[in-house]
């Protein structure tokens, strides 16, 4: 019996992968994943067998990895960012059910909240929420409730999946919800293509964010009441005295 | 002029450090940090100059790193977990102020939410909040407000700094706040000494968590309404159909 290793490969660059993730990809027999993520690692591990499935076939992808493990292979299922946060780890466990076999190992990775924050400065120094704007699997009412409470709680907010071709106006809708409790001037940031070609970032206000162009390669951060700009970077102080 | 690299070293094991963090520690002249974190990396980078300051001297530590950079050195400031999340990145930016020199580079790392979740199973698959129970720099009223809204929002919650010697009852107080909105049976997990000697984890209910022994080496996760136990692991399904 082989095993499934669910590997968070981080934002996309080899350097931002953990040493454990790199070793897992070196030692496995097969690499399974969504095509875009498989493409990020293909060149560096050329001797592996690769299995790609489209975006909407997550369950099929996880079942394939489990089948490979049952056939004696070590199957690495690659996920962008962390392997758990909106990643495949839960689905692999769900599909295996109450059986203890094949073995599942979860290798965490840098989630976009961490890598986007590092690029923008240090906006997540204090308590924060991570909320996805994708309503493919979550009712919009749930997303709206979470955004509202996160704003009322003065949590810094990292928004994942701020837009896609089929949801072009989700970020605008989210900003309108946040603007019920937060001022137009609240500082925000957008990180794009983190760790990949075309990496970029900008800071802007929540009012400007409402009109901003974003796509599925963006992570958005909405600051808390203390967030400020220092030397062009987005910084949320933790509250150390005399600074 | 040198530079300051604020390096997130992850939970503590070399394997869970990113390749970029490892390279930064290899290439720097000096490693600066809180003693406990410096000790985690000292053996692997023995030719560096080490500077340690106690826990309450964060500003002094960051000023020291900036001074080393002004003297032409590359100073790596090590932070456990991520360098931004409750880490030193913001404070280094604050102390440098509006000057562009010395250069600051922020190298993100695995934050405890990611590494604890991977150890416990996959509890953070959906939207979540990260909240620290330390009231050293944050009024308890703010912490209480954030806990309350996170519970009402049905966010999974990662609790950092659940207890310390000077705050032995903070987790119990936090559970009492969460229990106003969440049931006693809500599934939770505790991860301890992640990536270090004595690593352990357990799942339990929110009612049991209220009575649990935790210390400053623990990270606590409180599940959302969908969180369940599968083969002993803590899993929050994302909502894929037909699983």
Looking at how many chains there are and whether they match, the oligomeric state comes to: homodimer
The ordered H/E elements of chain A are EHEHEHEHEHEEHEHEEHEEE
Euclidean distance between termini CA atoms of chain A = 57 Å
Q: Note the main sheet of chain A.
A: 5 strands, parallel
Low-pLDDT sequence parts of chain A = none
What is the mean predicted local confidence, pLDDT of chain A?
96
- The residue fraction in helices of chain A comes out at 25-40%
Quick one: CATH superfamily of the largest domain in chain A?
A: Tetrapyrrole methylase, C-terminal domain
The chain pair with the largest interface is: A-B, 79 and 78 residues
CATH topology of the largest domain in chain A: Methyltransferase, Cobalt-precorrin-4 Transmethylase, Domain 2
Number of strands of chain A: 13
Percent strand of chain A: 25-35%
Query: What's the architecture of the largest domain in chain A, going by CATH?
Result: 2-Layer Sandwich
Summed up, the domain count of chain A is 2
CATH class of the largest domain in chain A: Alpha Beta
Radius of gyration computed on alpha carbons of chain A: 19 Å
Q: List the strand order in the largest sheet of chain A.
A: 3-2-4-1-5
* Large-scale geometry of chain A: elongated
Give structural notes.
The structure is a homodimer of 243-residue chains. Chain A is of the alpha/beta class and 243 residues long. Helix content of chain A is 30%, strand content 26%. The first copy, chain A, is built from eight helices and 13 strands. The first copy, chain A, has helices at residues 19-27, 35-41, 58-70, 89-96, 112-120, 140-152, 170-178, 206-209, and strands spanning 3-8, 30-34, 49-53, 74-79, 103-107, 121-122, 128-132, 156-160, 187-192, 200-205, 218-222, 228-230, 233-235. In chain A, strands 3-2-4-1-5 form a five-stranded parallel beta sheet, with helices on both faces. In chain A, helix 3 crosses helix 4. The longest helix of chain A has 13 residues, at 58-70. Chain A starts with a strand and ends in an 8-residue tail after the last strand. The model of chain A has no long low-confidence stretch (mean pLDDT 96). Chains A and B meet through helix 1, helix 4, helix 5, strand 6 and strand 7 of A and helix 1, helix 4, helix 5, strand 6 and strand 7 of B. Strand 7 (128-132) of chain A pairs antiparallel with strand 7 of chain B, so a sheet runs across the interface.
